[in-house]
Every structure is written in structure tokens, then in C-alpha cells.
Amino acid sequence: MEIRIDGKPADITLDNEKNIGEIMAGLEAWLGNSGYRLSGLSINGQAVNGSSSMEEIFTRDINSVQTLEIFTSSLAELTAESLQNLLADIKIFESMKFEERADFFENWKESSAANFTAEQMPDLYKIFVNSFSGGEINPQTAFSITEERLREVTAPLQEFLNLKPLLEETCTLLTDLPLDIQTGKDAKAAKTMQIFSGVSEKILRVFKQLNIQGFLSKKENNEDSFNVMLNEFLNLAKEILAAYEKHDTVLLGDLAEYEAAPMLNKLYTAILNYSSELKSSTRGA
After folding, report:
1. Exposed, middle or buried by CB within 10 Å (0-12, 13-18, 19+), for 215?
2. Residue 83 per-residue DSSP state
3. For residue 70, what is the enclosing H or E element?
4. Which are the contacts of 75, defined by CB distance < 8 A and separation ≥ 6?
5. Tens digits of per-residue pLDDT, 214-259?
6. Contact at 8 Å (CB) between 42 and 7?
């Protein structure tokens, strides 16, 4: 059996697979790790469409298949399309009368954009649910957040470079945090924690896009050490948030000033150094 992916022969060796479903299970896992999603399927030159029984297709014996063609879309493309749809949804929502909005929200929750967002961007999905259900997050705030997410997907390297001033401000706030706590500046300390959390999440989101879109160099031998640094940062962020929640001001101040600020700078610099020159991957979005 010949397997082709997006028109090109796939270097895939079958072991104990007996049907199409077993082949697709392995391929979907591989595609997911590569930043792609299955968008179409063709067997012996015939496209598998919505009218086909997927159970019948997936249980089909591989001995009856001469050619299996798989078509994919990049996760970045699908994410950008979904974000564009969300921006359009906000405009529609804002143009509606108050009494029409409840029905719109119920229909929206069943839409493909909502389902994709709930799966891939659950935090953004919660923002839309809050906004569309009359919560405290207004539609314009949701619109601004979605625009930011769209920039992270369509221009991740530029968005990462633009983060530098905010990162420097965050490091300064972290360094000042112990004194803020000692002098009772609770509001400023809370704001520092909020900014640190937001910047950390943004770095990780953009790093994910740089990775799946092919901006990160695979030539370096320091990939393991980079992953260690990334995990150390994640663990440190959890420690800081835990210390803040427990009101452990001594530990929080030490972690923020002596560990979080320098590590945040170190991680940002490492991602820049680990990034290749501005170019799309061979299968980039």
C-alpha cells in the first residue's frame, strides 16, 4: 500500500496494522506533535466525504487499499482562521439587540470556532463565554485579547521581540516586590503577580508557535538543556504563585527577586538565541 501525505510519498513502515483506523491513529498522533491536523482523506483515488461511514472506513482491511492519501492543514492556519472567526463573532454580537444576544450565545457555543477554541485555547474560550453571557468582560476587551492572540500566531517572532519592554518592566517589578510587601503596598504586589503571570503565559504561548511553525533551530545540541531551563521556569512560576496564595511573603520575595527576575531574562534570551533566522519552515503557516 502506498501512503501519501499532501501529495508526497510518506516514509512510513507498517508493522502490525491491520486496518485504516490503526494507521490513522498513529498518523494523527504524529501530525499533532508536528503542528498539523488531518483535513482530508482519499482511498484508492476516492475522497472520503461526510456521507461516508467513518466506522466502515476505519475498519477497512489494508489489503484492500492500494493508495491512501492524507491531506493536512497546519495547526497555525486553523488557529488563525478560528481567531478571525471569533473577531467576526464579536462584531455580530455587538450589532445585535440585547434580547437577541442570548440566542446568539447558545448557537455560538455549537459553532466550529467555539469548539476549536475550547479545545486549543480554553482560557480564551472562557473569556468569550463570560463576554457573550453578559459577564464582567466586555466584548471590546475580548476583541483586544483575540487580536493579540492572532498576532502571536501570524507573526510569532515579531510578537516575541515586541515583548522585550514589558519583560524588562516585569523584572523590575519582581525585584521591587519584597520591598512592596514589607511596606504594605498590597495593590502593587498584586499587580506585579498579575503581570508576571500574564508575561509568563505569553512567553510560553509564543514559544509554542515558534516551535510548531519552524522558527526554532534544530541544529543546536543544546535542545535538552533548553528544555531543562523551560521546565525549571515552569516549576518556579508554580512555586511563586503557590507562595503568593499562601501569603508566604518571605519566600515570595526571595523567589521573585533572586530567581524569577533573572530566570525570566535568561529564558527570553535563550528563546531568541534558539530561534533560527526569520524564515518560514518548509511547511510553515
Report:
1. buried
2. H
3. strand 67-74
4. 32, 35, 36, 37, 120, 212
5. 887 665 555 667 778 888 999 999 999 899 888 888 899 899 989 9
6. no
